User: What shape does this take?
Amino acid sequence: MASSAKVTWQSLLAATMYGFMYFPIIVLAVYSFNASRYSAGWEGFSLKWYRSLFQDQRIFSALIDSLTIAFVAVGVSAVLGTMMAIGLAKYRFRGKGLYRGVAYLPLIIPDIAIAVATLVFLTSVAVPLSLGTIIVSHIVFCLAYIAVVVSSRLQNLDPNLEEAALDLGANPFQAMVRVLIPQLAPGILAGCLLAFVLSMDDLLISSFTAGGGANPLPLEIFSRVRTGVKPDINALSVVLITASALISGAAEYLRYRSERRQRELG
Assistant: This one.
């Protein structure tokens, strides 16, 4: 009896938490199909706000800026983050613990602190703000996220496979490229997908490091909602939430499939 009551309370608590998180998103999605220009009342189902969204050239221009930033930042971070994770896992050197802590600081430092610090640094070295400065600032946190995901994948790998490749005549570089990297590929891809979503959604760091010609999508959205949330922004939010959910789901599926295959091989 007590066990049943405990399960009921746990289920109720879980349902309340999920409702608190997802009910606003459901409301947003419903009103993105509202024919009314205002969210005060329902005036019927309509797709006109989605048609308006896909005809908005400013939105598409901002989307191209965001995609450029995300792809470049994630591409560079994938290489550097994988190298960092492998180096921390395989080699011993003085100050390794300090380096590890500093490398993972972007995971715990608030975005506003990173944004202010990056802006102060760029100003002190007289670097003009541009699309490039946004990319560099995004590499900072994308690198840490990818390194963490790859490191967790490294812990579950069998080191004997790489050692066997070395015994069979491969040099360390060949063993890394042909044996280690293919095993890390699911983790690298999952980390890249996670970093891509975070880069596309970033507002604070982008707003502090954007120059005159750069206008990523989060900045465009923020500039519009300052005067009130319009129905086309509701539609854009639904599209972004759906895309982010699909990418995050793909990353989680790759991680799950990789761990399952590793357990089967073990």
Notes: Residues 26 and 198 are 22 Å apart (CA to CA). The mean pLDDT is 83. The chain has one domain: 56-265. The longest helix spans residues 231-265.
